[in-house]
Amino acid sequence: MFALDAVPPPSPRRLAVRVTNDAIRQIRGGHPWIFDGSIVSVKGGEGAGGAAGDLAVIFDSERQFVAIGLYDPASPIRVRILHHGKPATIDSGWWANTIHTAIERRQAVLAAGDTTGYRVIHGENDGMPGLVLDRYGDAFVLKLYTAAWLPHLRTLVPLIDEQLHPSSLVLRFSREVVNNSAPKLVDGVALIGTTPTEPVLFHEHGLIFEADVVHGQKTGHFLDQRDNRAKLRPLAKDKRVLDLFTCTGGFSVFAAAGGATAVHSVDLSAAALETAQRNMAHNGFINNVQRCEHTVQAGDVFDVLQAFGEQKRRFDIVIVDPPSFARKQLDHDRALHAYRRLTRLALDVVEDSGVLIQSSCSSRVHADEFFAGVHSAAAATTHRITEMLRTTHAADHPIGYAEGAYLKTIFARVASKGVRARTSMHGSMGG
Predict the structure, then answer these.
(1) What is the domain class of 222-416 according to CATH?
(2) CATH fold of 13-84, please?
(3) By percentage, how much of the chain surpasses pLDDT 70?
(4) Is beta strand 240-244 parallel, antiparallel or unpaired with respect to 262-267?
(5) Least enclosed by CB within 10 Å: which of 38, 82, 197, 406?
(6) Inter-residue contact 142 to 163 (CB < 8 Å)
(7) Which residue from 71, 66, 17 is spatially nearest to 44, judged by alpha carbons?
(8) Per DSSP, which regions of 228-299 are E strands?
């Protein structure tokens, strides 16, 4: 843990923070963020305010305790709430209990025995806002979305080591993190063990995948779609599948394992497609995967769908799993337009009685808006869809507040208008 040697310890001071009445209502309602515009005053810090990682105590107008959280003067999310209600002492014991509780919540994932890649701590939803801990086999990735966690790593890392025994723990930063206090803590550094020099292998519902825990997107794999990928598997037998925004090929591999005759994976990134091909090869011991014809195509999904529609190229199952189209609220309307356009284009390449699987991971686009958008887009085409299923995150991605419910997915049967769509899921929809 040499990288932690130069990390400054957390300050013993506590900031006294006054916020607006509306912010207090939000906190008492369980919201984990206080934005800079809701801060009325900050007292107790050095200079004009506190430092990243200071513990900020929120008081109401009667000077009564409301909450305590982590302060970050460089972030528009100025305070991330750790605890609200009755006063609590945030110490090593509190951190240990919070981590233990998060681990216990994943027992259902562990009980299956065929999954070694999952989220151990899901940020705000597990009481540790701005921090994610993912497991890939014996390698773990700790990703920080605020510099407020840096002074607390000296306490947290030994607790993670004690409770989870990782062979390596890799630190990753989101692009928003401003790290001015610990220059040795760079993206990809190992806090426990050594930094992996090649992708690590892990199991997802019995299938094998690799994760680049040092350079890969997010922490190396998109774990939140794990159960939706498993739901695809029983639908794929003898089907031709188009996997759009395939990234590292999660849906593609599950389709092949389920008996798809052909899978075509499309992504803008050629490097991601290479990973998708390796993930398919990792599962070559499965007869269905051996028999499946897997092809890849690098390109813009909108352009590819447009071309396939004009060529009258058709697939039995089309999966549309794009990245977030709404990183900020100003992107909301544009994101809805993009989702509707994708629906229209995708429906043009789905065979009659085929299946459309479409997702949104934009927290700023609410589920009802997304599902209504898919239906309205379909209504404007020559196709009719019949819902089979709506889903959300896998079990290791619990939802603790409104913005935490970011992932939504629709499974729908597709038919030409005037043709009755079959609603059967061909038996099991389980993983």
Answers:
(1) alpha beta
(2) 2.30.130
(3) 94
(4) parallel
(5) 197
(6) no
(7) 17
(8) 240-244, 262-267, 293-298
Q: Considering the chain, what is the average pLDDT of its residues?
A: 92
Of residues 363 and 352, more confidently modeled: 352
Buried b (16+ CB within 10 A) or exposed e, 36-54: eebbeebebbeeebbbbbb
Short-list 403, 59, 48, CA closest to 69: 59
Structure tokens at 311: 């060529």
Q: Is 418 left (phi over 0), alpha (psi -120 to 50) or beta?
A: left
pLDDT, tens digit (0-9, with 9 covering 90-100), for 183-214:
788 999 999 999 999 999 999 999 999 999 99
Residue found under tokens 């590819």:
304
The predicted-structure confidence for 66-105, as pLDDT tens digits, reads as follows 999 999 999 999 999 999 999 999 999 999 999 999 999 9
DSSP state at residue 422: P
CA dist., res. 407 & res. 412, Å (int) = 17
Q: Structural domain boundaries of the chain?
A: 13-84, 92-200, 222-416
Evaluated on CA atoms 75, 56, 191, 105, the torsion sign reads negative
Sign, CA dihedral 137-288-298-384, equals: negative
Q: What is the pLDDT of residue 430?
A: 38
Report how far residue 191's alpha carbon sits from residue 185's, in angstroms, rounded to the nearest whole number: 9
pLDDT, tens digit (0-9, with 9 covering 90-100), for 198-257:
999 999 999 999 999 999 988 999 999 999 999 999 999 999 999 999 999 999 999 999
pLDDT value of residue 431: 35
Which residue pairs from 368-377 have beta carbons closer than 8 angstroms and sit at least 24 positions apart in sequence? Answer: 369/336, 370/336, 370/339, 370/408, 370/410, 371/408, 371/410, 373/336, 373/339, 373/340, 373/343, 374/339, 374/340, 374/343, 374/410, 374/412, 376/340, 377/339, 377/340, 377/341, 377/343, 377/344, 377/347
159 in Cβ contact with 99 (< 8 Å): yes
**Whole-angstrom distance, CA of residue 118 vs CA of residue 133:** 9
* Distance from chain centroid for Cα 182: 27
What homologous superfamily is domain 92-200 in, according to CATH?
A: RNA methyltransferase domain (HRMD) like (3.30.750.80)
What's the pLDDT score for residue 174? Answer: 92
User: Between β-strands 131-136 and 117-122, what pairing exists: parallel, antiparallel or unpaired?
Assistant: antiparallel
Pick from 152, 129, 132: nearest CA to 141: 132
Question: What is the C-alpha to C-alpha distance for residues 22 and 37, in angstroms, rounded to an integer?
Answer: 11
Return d(Cα 238, Cα 262) in angstroms, integer: 8
Cα–Cα–Cα angle for 5, 6, 8, nearest 5°? 110
Q: Is the pTM of this model over 0.85?
A: yes
